[in-house]
Amino acid sequence: MAIECPLWKRVQSFTGPIPRARHGHRAAAIRELIVVFGGGNEGISEELHVYNTVSRQWFLPAVRGDIPPGCAAHGFACEGTRILVFGGMVEFGKYSNSLYELQASRWLWKKLKPRPPKNALPPCPRLGHSFSLHANKCYLFGGLANDSEDPNGNVPRYLGDFYELELQSQSGVKGWNIPETKGGGPCPRESHTCVVYGGGAGSSPKLYVFGGMCGQRLADLWQLDFETMTWSLPQTTGACPLQRSLHSSNVIGNQMYVFGGWVPAEDSDGKTNALGPEWICTNSMAILNLDTMAWSNLNPEDLQQTGWALQAVGVDEERSSRWPKARAGHCAVTIGTRLYVWSGRDGYRKNWNYQVCCKDLWYLETEKPSAPAAVFLVKSTINMLHVAWRPLPAAECYLLQLQPVTPSLALPTSAPPPSMGQEVEHLQELVQSESETARDTGTADSTSLQERLVAEGVVGECREDICSTEELKRGDTDVCAAESVSAVNGQPIDPVRHGSAQEQNEVSQQEQDCPSQQPESCEDPTWFDVGIFKTLFSEITHYYLPSDGVASTIANRNSHDSEWKMPGTHSFEGCEKQELASGVSYRFRVAGLNSCGQGDFSPVSEFKTCQLGFPGAPSAVKITKASDTVHITWEPPTSPSGKILEYSMYLAVRKTKGSSTEKPGDLGFIRIYRGTKTSCTVSSTHLSNAHIDCSARPAVVFRIAAKNEQGYGPATQIRWLQDASKLKSSVSQPDSGFTEAEPSVTND
C-alpha cells in the first residue's frame, strides 16, 4: 500500500561514464539495473548505458552481435533478461520498423525477422509508438509514420493500428499478428503511454493507453481487457490530468504514475486553453488507482503545503532539489517500489540549435522498504562477527540489530552446523561504489566489501555485468567468497548424522535442526542496535546499550507519521558500547530505511563467535566444472591456531528420494572427502545424488571444515548456483551446465 504522499529524492552522487543528457530515449529494468538506449540531442545516441541502482554506478557494457543503429522514440520492452527494440527514428525524417533483441546476460544483440501477419502487412516504419509486454506477447499500438517520398521531406501520418508479437521462450520471436478486438479502440496517436496491469483479486489483466498527440494533445484513457479483447473507456473519479504527450506512465502495485510531458499553458486568469498554441512542459504527477479507477494529482506546491518535502530533505535546500524540473521525452522505470526518472527535454529552452535537456536522476519513494532476507555470516572470530545482507531496491540505509542468546534460550547444539546462511547475491549487488561506501555509524569501517575480499584473495575483481551463463559453461574456474560457520562446540561433525567416509552414499534419516530463520514470537527478549549502514555488510565488534533504558533508539520511533526523519550518527550519541564475547551466540535481524520510514525486519538469524584454540574457516574457495565432475580447492584458515590435522568436505543430499518439496532443515549431508589436501574432486555419482536447494536461487550445497588438535572449527558453506531454466521438475540432479558458485554460511 503506497503512502499518501510519495517523496521525490535526487541522486546526488554516482560514478562511472555518465551518459549525456537527451530526450526520446527509452529505459528498462533488469533486477537492480536500469538499461538506457537511444534518444539524443546533439545527434542520436548509439551507446547502451546501464545504471546500477545499488552501487550507484553507470557503466558501458561491451555489447556485441548485430548492434542496432541509434534510434529515438522507439519501442522498448523487457522480458526477464532480454530486451526487444522496435522501430524509432534513426535520422531526421527516416523511421525504422526493424526489430532487435538484446540478451543482457551476455550483452548480445541480435536482429530478428518475425514472420508477417496472415493476409496483412507487417508494421510500417514509425516513431512515438507504444510497445508493451504481457505474458509471451508484445503489443504494438500507434505511432507516427512519414509518408513523404522525398527522403528529405516529412509528411506525418498518425497511426492507430494494433499488432501483437508472439515471443519464443528465452530468445527469438514467432511472428506478427493483428488480434481481433471489440469496442472500437483509441484513435490514432503518437507520444502516448501504454501500461499493463495484472488486475486485482478476481479481475482480468488489462492494458491502458493514456494521452498522446493527434494534431492536438489528448487526455483520454482507454482500457483493453485481455480476456475479452474488448476496448472501453473506463469511468474514473477525481480530477483527470491535463491532456499531454511525451509523458511517462508506470505501474507500481495497483497505481499508475503519470509524470511530466507537454501540457496546455494557463492563461493569465488561471484557465487552460487547450486549443491555443501555448504548451509547456510540466513536472506534475497524476496517480490512478487501477482498482478503484480514482485519479489524484500531485505537484510541487501541493507537496510543499503538506510539509512532506520539507521534512524529507530539509528546509534549507533549494526548491529544485525537492522535486524534478519540468520535462518531456524523459525515461521512467520502476525498480521495486521506486520510480526512477532520468533526463528529458526542458521545455522550449534551446542552446543554439539544440534543446536543453535535464541532466539529473531522480527517484520517487512510494513505500517503506519491504522485509529483507535473513542476515548471513561472512566470517566469525573470537570477538567479531562479519555479517552481510541482501540489498533492497527501496532502502537508503539499513538498521541492524542483535540479541545475545542466553544459555537458557540457546538452541540445541548436538546437530551438525545447521543451514543458517542466505544465498549471496551477485557480487555487484553487494559492493557499493567507493563514493557511496558510507561509514558505519557504529563501527569504524571504511573499506568496501569488494576491496576486502579481493585483498584477502577471496574473490576476483567484480564485473559490472549480469552473470553470463555461456561464459561459465566453458568450465572456467569460478571464484567463491569464503564464509564461516561455527562448528558444534568445536567437535568433529557427527558421522552418524552426516555419513562417514565409508558411508558416503548413505543419507542420514535423522532430523536436522535448522534455526536459520527463527520465529520472533518464541520469546520477547531485548534487541540492541548495532548501527545504521549504507553498506550491505558490517564487521561487528560491539553493539549499543541505550542510556534511556529503551532497548532500541531507532526501531521504537513511529515511522508512520509525518515526524519521521532519517536516523544518522547522532542517533547513538550517549549510548554505551558493549563488546562481543567469545563462544556466545547472537541473533540478528535487519530492516531497510528510507524517507517513508522503516520497513519490517528480516527473519532472525543466529551466529556464534569462535572459541579460543579452534581453527578458522577455510577460505578462497574455487570451483572448476569439468565434463561430469567438479573440482574444489581452498586455502587453509588464516588463523589455524595450531597444526591443521585434516579437512572434511560434505555434500547436501535429499533424505527422501523422489521428493521435491523438502525444506532446507530436512537435508542430510554425506562426507565426500576427508584428508590433509586442500582440494578434492566431486564425482558424477555424488553429484547425481545432490539435493538442489531451492530455498533461494537453486543451488547445490557443500561444506568444508578444518580440524586441529582442539577439534573442528567453523565450516565454510558454498552454494553452487544452478540454471533454474534447465532444472528438471523433480529438481533431483544438478544442472550439467555450470552457472555460478556462490557461498552462504552455516552456524550452530
Summarize the structure.
The protein is mainly beta. It is built from seven helices and 51 strands.
Observed structural traits:
748 residues, mainly beta, 6-stranded antiparallel sheet, 5-stranded mixed sheet, 51 strands, 5% helix, 38% strand, globular, disordered C terminus
Question: What would your notes on this structure say?
Answer:
The chain has 748 residues and is mainly beta. 5% of the residues lie in helices and 38% in strands. Strands 45, 46, 48, 49, 50 and 51 form a six-stranded antiparallel sheet that branches. A hairpin with a 4-residue loop joins strand 6 and strand 7. The model is unreliable at 305-318, 408-524, 558-562, 659-665 and 729-748 (pLDDT under 50).
Architecture blueprint of SSEs:
Layout: E1 7-10, E2 26-30, E3 33-37, E4 40-41, E5 43-44, E6 48-52, E7 57-59, E8 64-65, E9 75-79, E10 82-91, E11 94-103, E12 108-112, E13 130-134, E14 137-146, E15 156-167, E16 173-177, E17 193-197, E18 206-213, E19 217-225, E20 230-232, E21 248-252, E22 255-259, E23 262-264, E24 279-281, E25 285-289, E26 294-298, H1 300-306, H2 308-313, E27 331-335, E28 338-342, E29 345-351, E30 354-357, E31 361-365, E32 376-380, E33 385-388, E34 397-404, H3 427-430, H4 449-455, H5 469-473, E35 478-479, H6 495-498, E36 528-533, E37 537-540, E38 542-545, E39 576-579, E40 585-594, E41 597-601, E42 605-608, E43 619-625, E44 630-635, E45 646-653, E46 668-675, E47 679-682, H7 684-688, E48 692-693, E49 699-707, E50 712-721, E51 740-744
Parallel strand pairs: 8-12
Antiparallel strand pairs: 1-31, 2-3, 3-6, 4-5, 6-7, 9-10, 10-11, 11-12, 13-14, 14-15, 15-16, 17-18, 18-19, 19-20, 21-22, 22-25, 23-24, 25-26, 27-28, 28-31, 29-30, 32-33, 33-37, 34-36, 34-40, 35-43, 38-39, 40-41, 40-42, 43-44, 44-47, 45-46, 45-49, 48-49, 49-50, 50-51
